[in-house]
Design goal:
By secondary structure, this protein is mainly β. The chain has strands at 13-14, 37-38, 46-53, 56-61, 74-76, 82-88, 94-99, 107-112, 130-138, 141-149. It has a domain at 46-149: Sandwich (Immunoglobulin-like).
């Protein structure tokens, strides 16, 4: 047997041992325990969005994600396009989306596509893949609201 699939509860750590069998059917000794494989079945969520300026949006995820640094993994409304996606820091939870010009007072949605996943392969939670962002003027300052769209 070359592969074996096992299941475990989320957050539980599983350990593995292996042994080889030659063509004559002789079994080798068992290996020591592996370092452990932590089971992760929880999908990451888009948890925050904030303004950088009229050409960029900061995004935050509930846990580290991969593929979020690819502009093609985002779809925006009203003609807004992501030109570049940039990872911020080393945690893998914060990203900066460089966009085409955002128009003050216009509401946009940013949708994260399922190709953005956590390191275990869980795609972004389908209940929380969208942020609605809008620049508005408050007390003379530009702000952007974040509303997770369900």
């Amino acid at each position: 047997m070359l592969t074996k699939t096992v299941t475990g509860a989320n957050g539980r750590t599983l350990y593995a041992r292996v042994r080889a069998r030659d063509r004559a059917g002789n079994n080798g000794l068992w290996s020591g325990n592996s370092d452990g494989i932590k089971v992760d079945t929880v999908a990451p969520r888009l948890s925050a969005a904030g303004p950088r300026n009229y050409l960029a949006v900061d995004l935050g995820f509930s846990e580290a994600v991969v593929n979020a640094d690819k502009a093609s993994n985002y779809v925006c409304s009203r003609g807004l396009r992501v030109l570049q996606a940039q990872r911020l820091g080393t945690a893998g939870t914060a990203y900066l989306l460089h966009t085409t010009a955002q128009i003050p007072g216009t509401s946009y949605t940013v949708t994260v596509l399922p190709s953005v996943k956590d390191p275990a392969g869980n795609p972004v939670d389908p209940r929380y893949p969208v942020a609605r962002v809008q620049w508005r003027r408050e007390n003379g300052c530009g702000t952007m609201g974040f509303v997770p769209v369900k």
